[in-house]
Here is the input.
Amino acid sequence: MDEFTTWDILRNLLLAARWTVLLSLVSFIGGGLVGAALLFARIGSGRIGPTFVKAYVELFQGTPLLMQLFLAFFGLGLLGVDVPAWLAAGVALILWSAAFLTEIWRGCVEAIARGQWEASSSLGMGYVQQMRHVILPQALRIAVPPTVGFSVQVVKGTALTSIIGFVELSKAGTVVTNATFEPFTVYGLVALIYFCLCWPLSKSSQILERKLNVAHRNH
Amino acid sequence: MSLIEITEVKKRFGDNEVLKGINIDVAPGEVIAIIGRSGSGKSTLLRCINGLENIDEGSISVAGAQLLPDELHLKALRLKVGMIFQQFNLFPHLTAGRNVMLSQMVVKKTPKAEAEAMAKTMLERVGLGHKFDAYPDQLSGGQQQRVAIARALAMQPIALLCDEITSALDPELVSEVLAVVKELASEGMTLLMVTHEMRFARDVCSRVVFMHQGRVHEIGKPEEVFSNPKTPELQQFLGMTH
Amino acid sequence: MNYTFDYGWLLVYWPVLVKGIGITVELTLVGGVLGVMLGIACAWARALGPSWLRPFVAGYVELIRNTPFLIQLFFIFFGLPALGLRMGELEAANFAMVINLGAYGCEIIRAGIQATPSGQFEAGASLGMSRIQTFRHVVLIPALQRIWPALSSQIVIVMLGSAAVSQIAAEDLTFAANFIQSRTFRAFEAYFVATLIYLALAIGLRQALRGLGWTLFPRRTAR
Here is the structure.
């Protein structure tokens, strides 16, 4: 077998990291869309919607993401189709992200002071108008930092998809380790790449949060 | 004919009966001060008139519009009655002008230009024409409260409910808000205000309602109520606050 | 779909599951206790400790919070032996969980410490207490109480994350499910049962932590 230079290792890992980035994007955006739909069901006035979303969130936040991946992989397999790992990974991560995002956003909507609801009520606005013009514009603003922060969890969450056989950064790490027998270097580099993906997101979340707090203190 | 009719209104929070049968009729152009200790039910009464709380018994009607807890009736009622809050409750993401324009546009479907003109007029009326583009967090408490008044006025209500509108203000800012209210009163606006400003109540109001333990304990012209309180509770309350 | 679910294997394999549950609970207990202790130490260092120490702690916290637990686990189990640090599966799993919770716990507890009114530090100092004594006796308990719900959620997250330790052959609940599905070819059912058990464990752990909070903080000292 040929000698692997550190550059060879890094190059292979970086190529695989593309799939980590792609899966993260798909999961985050898909999760955001599903999460938004769940949010409206959760804060709506119906009876079934909120109960369903509560149970949904409890289920996805109360069980390991790894189990959700297994269940998606083998569960979709039961439908008789041969499920590619990327599909199971995408489905599971979207549903998982949706649960967390909908909870984050619900918190933001509920953080809007009761007086905002009362003032807009007293001006004659209906529920949809209040949401559209008064509550959501404010909730969206405070939702940005935690939402960006959660994207870090999504990137890290994609690592588990290696276990059901999706070839992304972590899987590539294992494959390269098996070829080079240099786990220290390889996993060190894998960690470094994850760090380079995640740290800017974490940092910007913190900065956004700080900006928001300063803006709030001006009152 | 009365403008606001409050008849046998009862309100409970759990086991706690906060309003125990309230009867007040308000004639057009009257300015009513509601005074009493905290917990006497005065704020709750005001919030009931605007439908922010549902009443358990009795009835409230404003210019013939009955208070019923469905969206259609509530909207009709709220178009007639504006409300000003202790904490101003301006929309922090909108400028002062936009605060005043928003409900005109989304509730009354007023065209933008018209709503803007109305907003300018109303802000000028409260002395803040120059603050049209300022955000709430750039305004003092007194200015915010005046914007809130302009916002309510822009809906052209026939009565205004003021819920301790100067209680959250620094003492030096109270007078600028009261001056605006006094002006409204002199222009014939019907006002119901929960207040701790006894001097203002005495000088400006046509009647004073003293609430005690969920009931209207005394009601009358300010000179009677303040100079000649009949019940020991009111005597004690006035002694306490003077 | 003409698949029939079959849970008959439970009759044979339940002891495997029970053993796996035991390991998962044990990992969570050790990881939770030591992880919170590490978190407190780091939070102290970052908020009140000597200034030369702060960047190191900050670096550790950022490194752990911005890399996947699975990779931390692999690095510890497969990578560290290159430095002569060889650990068994369970030790490595425990170690990874402790440093993981330590980093998250640090940030959560630090927020609690920083919310302490400055008068509390001043009162401690004016009574002649040292900085460490003030921290230990005056600041820490109200700080923990303030952030107990957030810390509890993080402990639950670490418990759920521990499913990954099956990948270094630590014989936890997920490992048990893997084992059972490899023998019975009932993959969906095996993972489904394991998922339900995890859910029960998460709910139970959350309740236990709430109860622990009531015991640790019987008086409402924090706002």
